[in-house]
Fold these 3 entries.
Entry 1:
Amino acid sequence: MVKVRELLFKVFPKFNNSTFEVLKDRFKALGFTDERALDSVNNVIDTYEGWDKLPNIANFIQFDKKVRLYEYDELLKETNDFSAEAREKHFDKFVFIKSLKKFVKKDYEKYFRSE
């Protein structure tokens, strides 16, 4: 959390200590790791448009998204009552992530590709 604090105060020097303490508590309560918290701060730096005012806690918290991972068996169970054509369309919405040995919806594939 030291890197998070240093970066936050470097970019937003008027950010106050009490707000940072509340932000830190919210990160902890929501299960953010130091890495996720740093990613959140970097996201606010990259996307924040309120140049005449400081970001608030919601600007940092809203960045975090959890992505549902699926086992192959789960995808099969979801499609038990589907026709062959409907099942194929359903499976086309997912992609296999080799490093995790799990499936994710294609919309989230970009978060798992490093190349």
Note: The first strand starts at residue 94 and ends at 97.
Entry 2:
Amino acid sequence: MNNTAFDFVSILESFQSVKESKLLTEDQKQKIYTDMLRALPPDVFCSTCIDTMTIVEEILKNAQTPKAPKESPARPHAPTEGSEGQSELLRKTSANTRGSRAKKAVVKKT
């Protein structure tokens, strides 16, 4: 039951044939990729080819999620010079923001 790198190469060949198939829709391909990922043997049975198994897992996981076109985020508009929020923030720039100093306690000496 021990798997070798040759077994994973055949899995990659199967993956490639599914990927290039024109008979399958994208949804069907995604389902097959999920089933192929589930069918991979546990790590215990792949002690001689852990790196190869990791590569195959990564390829199958990347193929599972379809790459949708990314939407560019909307750019925020630059504030105008007369905006109210900016004038309130800059009103007291030299003010002590931490508050006044605590008063020292007077201790009687005996």
Note: The longest helix spans residues 5-20.
Entry 3:
Amino acid sequence: MESLIQDLQQYFPQLKAEQYNTPDYFKQAMSLALQNYALSSEKTAQEFLVKPEQVQEWATGKSIPDNLSRPYILMWVAEALKKESPQH
């Protein structure tokens, strides 16, 4: 998980790394990824077999995946951001 945390900190330095598996961290990371990095809610939804509206709900905190799912979703987000922004 340490490499995940390091990857996430590259993109979300304003978030506290030690809170990476909290619902609030997840909500903020998803919101930043969708707004600041133009991560596609459609592509994310397709990857996790949910509707794009569900991804938007993750970003607003209206709906948050369970504790076991969040790290896997964030790993995917970090990888997607790496592909989209090679300068990081």
Note: The CA atoms of residues 32 and 78 lie 12 Å apart.
